Structures are given as structure tokens and as C-alpha cells.
Amino acid sequence: MGRRAVKIKNPKVILTEWIPFGKNYMTEFIDRITLKEYQRKRIKYFTASEKKDIKDRAIFETSEYQTTVNIIDFIPETSVKFTAEMRGDGKKDVFIYVDYLGRCIYASEIIKAGDEEDVISLDNLSFIIPDLILDSSRIMSHLIASPQRYLLETLYGEIKVYKHVTVLTETEVVINEDTLVEISQVIGAVKNIIEIDNGLIIFGDFGIFISNPNPEKFEKFIYYYPFIRSITGVSRDLFFKLNTIASKLEVISSTLESGVDLEDITEIRGELSRIDRELAVIEIVCGYLKEIIEFLNNAYPPNFGDFDLMILEKVEAERKLKRLNYRIAEIENILASNSSLATSLARLLTTISEDLERKIANQLAENTKYQVAIGEAMEVLEIGIFGVYALEAAHVLLLTSGKEEILQHTKIFGFPLEFWIILAVTILGVYIGKIVIEYRKKKILEE
What we know:
Helix content: 55-70%
Coiled coil: 312-373
Transmembrane segments: 419-437
Shape: rod-shaped
Distance between the termini: 90 Å
Number of helices: 11
Keywords: Coiled coil, Membrane, Transmembrane, Transmembrane helix
Order of helices and strands: EEHHEEEEEEEEEHHEHEEEHHHHHEEH
């Protein structure tokens, strides 16, 4: 007998993520999506399109999809609420909340998935959630400032595919082995289950599943606790990123110890440059996280009712916030260690590069001296060849002139005139050869 599909009525999906913000970025974000349209009709026109015929319509458009954006409310420098219509296989209205802590919440009620309406199977819901994650990431990527986008892209690539998932339903769910397998499709491997107020809160690797006759009563809990889990996820990402960088630095260190050439130096210098940028981004993000975690710890417990505080106590929210302090301290230590090692390797690489360049320069100087010596020897040889040619020419002329015997009887300083003629012609040939070679060298140098 096959596994029976778990179906839930009108599930609500809430995605939570952290994006580096702060009050300055929050002010810019609110100004960007509201402008003066909020004062007039509480609707913001925002578009990345070059089309002019849509300028009076409230839409958000990219090359792949269009989304209507309606501003609900905002508090200057603090938070903004708006709705967006995501258009894909089916239209999905999504509520979006963003505040200066970097808390980004995306909420949507799923009324249709595939051929199912109102009552949705978790199988189909598991396909809807990735679409929501990608669509919300695309929207935020266009809305946030370029420095924020740079930080996220350095950590996660072009699109961030991870968000904390919370699923709410009023449908009663009976826990058994098959049910847990179904639920794990949308929140990851199940880690903990809490029975509370005629319902269940099921915790997975990357999400929470809440089944309760009145799921709306968990609103404040969902606002608060998934944000802690999102920050925990980001701190974990930073930790893994730093470990990856440490492995890269270890490989670079081993490579430098084993010896490198100029091509390796260029490649290693590029890798160290990329690592330096990543470390700078991690340092900035770690600074943001540290401030937020300190704020959340100092402000704990939040100003919630007894019911929400009771749930936070059950899930040990305070202990997890305090543990985040240690995680950030650990990240700072590893960051400092990696930065120090990267700096040391950069200096070592510079020293090796300078030594290698000095050796190459010395070798080139020696080669140049050698080549100059060979060149000078060749010049002497060519000049001598000119002399030999002149000697041979003079000898041939004397032989063919028929006056060789007469010249032998005529002597100057005890040597026959033939000797002096040959000597003079040879010297003249050497001189002409020298002039010709110097002229050729001068012409080549001028060119």
C-alpha cells in the first residue's frame, strides 16, 4: 500500500530572510518604492522596463515577469509593508514586510497548486515554495541598493535560493511516519515537535510547520523566531565561507612552498585578490549581524503577550540568541586569522615575485652580455671576411696582370712591392667592411 498524500486547506507560506540594511539603507529603500505616489494614491510605480506606455501603471517589471506593487504602510527609517503580485504559472499575491534590522518577510496564501484548489497536497506545495523563493529574491534584488546587492551576490551568487520557510494551516495533522516524510518536503528533516494549544509546531532543518485551528494567533511568533533562525543560517553561511577560504589559503601556502613561476604568481595573485574581497564582505556582514544580535539580546524578552512568550520559552529563544553571540565571536576570530594569513601570503608572494623577477633580470643581463660578445665577435669575423675577400681579389688581379715577377724585384723596406699592395688592399677591405657593418647597425637601430 502506497504512502497517502497529506493535504492541507489554504496553506499560508511565510518566507523569512535577513538582508543587510540599517536605517540609512531603510530610508533609501522606502524612498525608492514609495516616492510621492504614496501621498497621492498609496500606490508605487516601479519598473525596470524601458517601455514608456506603462509609466502610469503600478507595476514592477523585469524582462521575465511583471508584478503589481501596492504600498500598505511605512514608518520612516524603520519599516515598510507592501503587497506584490507574482506572475508565473499562477498569480500569487504576496505580502512583504521589511525593517531596518534587515528582517524581510514574504507571506502568501496558496489557493491553487497544479490541478488542486483550496486543499493543497504537500507534494504540490513543495514545488510552489521554490518558485516563491526565487520570485521574492528577484524582486528584492531589484529593490535594494547596489552595495547591498554586492554583499549578497558575493556570499550567495546572483540569486539567493535559501530562505526560512514557515507553513501555517488550520488543517489538523496526525503525526506518524508517513506524515513526517510529507512534511519534511517543505521544511526539511524534522528536528523537533511541540504540541501547543490544540495544535502542533514542527521544526525542520530550514522551516517550521504549524497546524492549529487558529494559525493567525502565531503571527508574533512567526515575526520573531524565524528571524532568529535566519540570522543563525547566515552566521552558519559565513562560518562555512571562512572555512572554504581557509582551505584555499592552505592550498596557496603549499603551492608557494613548493615553488612557483611567473604564470603561477599571476594566478595566485588573482586568487588572493578574490579572497581579499570576500573577507572584506564577510567583515561587513559580520558587523551588521553583531549589531542586530546585540540589539535582540538587549531587547529580550520582546513586548509580546503571554502566549507568544510562552512559545519562545519552549523553543529556548533566549538561549539561542546568546549562543549567536559566541558564534559571531568565533567568526570574528576565524576572520582575523584568515585575514592575517592572506596578508602574510600576499607579502610572501610579493617577495617571491621580486626575487624571481630579480633572477630573471640578472639572467637577462647575463644573456645580453653574452649576446653582445657574440655580436662583437661576429662583427670582427665579418670584417675579417671583408679583408679576406679583398686579399683574394688583389691576389687574383696580380696573377692576371702578368706583372707579378716585376713587382717581386721591386722592394720597399726589404719587402717586395707585391706584399705592400696586398697589405694595403687587405687593410682597405677591412676598413670598408667596418664602415658597412656600422652603417647597417645604425640603420637597424633607427628602425
